[in-house]
Amino acid sequence: MNVLPDKTFLPYYAAMAACVLLTTTAQLLLKAGAARKGGVLGSFLNPQTLSGYALLGLVTVLSTFAMQKIDMKTGSTWAAVPYFLVVVLAWLLFHEKVTRKRVAGCALIVLGLLLFHLG
To answer: Does pTM top 0.70 for this prediction?
Structure first.
């Protein structure tokens, strides 16, 4: 039983993996930009926030490309991964509190992804 996708699908899976990483990065940039002083307009117009929105635009293009060949059920499960990554990285980078409920939520996400891909 071959677990790896057909090589012709590799660019599409690479695009989806890039979407996961870019979405996570964009969310962290938006958080960093929102934390800057200068009110709402100042927060919105700073380079970190604008970069975060630019990355989300790129994610839109990449996910549209990836979904041309990846099943919807598979592609949509990848969208859950940034939720887990953002919690971990926000804790590491911004020293945000990680409650038991967040840990339980992240564990459920990881368990769900494992069950989905193994089943």
So the answer is: yes
